[in-house]
Amino acid sequence: MSLEIKSVEINITSDMLGLTRDRHTRMILRKTLEDMVIYEGKYRYNVKYPLPANLQSLINQFCEHPALGAINNVNSYFDKTIKAGYTSGGRRAYSRPRLYEKKKITPSTSDISAVGEGIVGFYFENIKKYTFEIRPFGVSPDLIFRDRLKKPSPTHLIEVKASLSDNNPSLTIAIDILSILAKTSFLRKGKYFSHICQVYIKQIDNLIIKDLVMEGV
User: Fold this and answer.
1) Which of 95, 90, 88 is nearest to 74 (CA)?
2) Among 164, 200, 176, residue whose Cα is nearest residue 6
3) What's the chain's Rg over C-alpha atoms?
4) How far is 200 from 112, CA to CA, in rounded Å?
5) Which of 23, 39, 110, 135 has the fewest Cβ atoms surrounding its Cβ within 10 A?
6) What percent helix, strand, coil does the chain show, rounded to 5?
């Protein structure tokens, strides 16, 4: 059971925050962010960490909505006993034209999201040693942590996305977050950091976090 972390850090200037104001300038900002991620080496492999045995407990602590069966539901997708023509409980279908391929028998998006939020919460609290502040409901960001080991203690605003495929953090979401930060000044050097964390559920016991870290300068 392992958690692999890949990250890239980029600096956001006040001029870049100004580019969030309309659709045209956002296109310029997107290209700028793409170039910066490439220049910084894309998402570098950092290190692997052992996963905790209590994944479901972590989900319960950090996800927005109750997801008591999320681990079992997502794990069933990887279970070799599931195949086209059968339900996850083993009931066989007899109408061949209506059969789904196995790749279409996916867990619910809410369960996938819950796994992502739980493992990202574990990463920042147990590996980064940040202090959990709040899990806002219904708004961005998904999680807020403080690094109380530093003085002054910077705040980390974290948006989480999860999937069953290997995607990079969404630059569209990054720009949306930067737009919020531009209006609140919540991206100041050494005080506020913004993270877009993309979780790849390779297997339920093999997870990868790609962390796009943005710091104001």
Assistant:
1) 88
2) 200
3) 19
4) 10
5) 23
6) 35, 30, 35
How many other β-carbons are positioned within 10 Å of the β-carbon of residue 188?
15
Beta bridge partners of 2: 50, 206
Please write the tens of the pLDDT for every residue from 40-65: 777 777 788 998 888 888 888 888 88
Domain ranges of the chain: 2-216
Structure-token pair, residue 154: 């910077």
pLDDT of the residue at 95 = 62
Low-confidence residues in the chain, pLDDT < 70: 80-91, 93-104, 185-190
| Tokens 């999320």 belong to residue | 70
149 and 129 Cβ atoms separated by less than 8 Å: yes
Angstrom distances, CA of residue 41 to CA of 7, 44, 93, 211? 9, 7, 48, 13
Distance CA 33, CA 42 (A): 11
Question: Which residue shows structure tokens 């531009």?
Answer: 182
Contacts of 102 (CB under 8 A, 6+ apart): 82, 83, 84
Q: What is the pLDDT of residues 8-27, one digit of tens each?
A: 999 988 889 889 988 999 99
Candidates 203, 213, 173; CA nearest to 4 is 203
Side by side, which strands form the sheet with 206-216? 44-50, 2-12, 206-216, 192-203, 155-163, 143-146, 131-134
Q: Say how far apart CA 159 and CA 140 lie, in whole Å.
A: 7
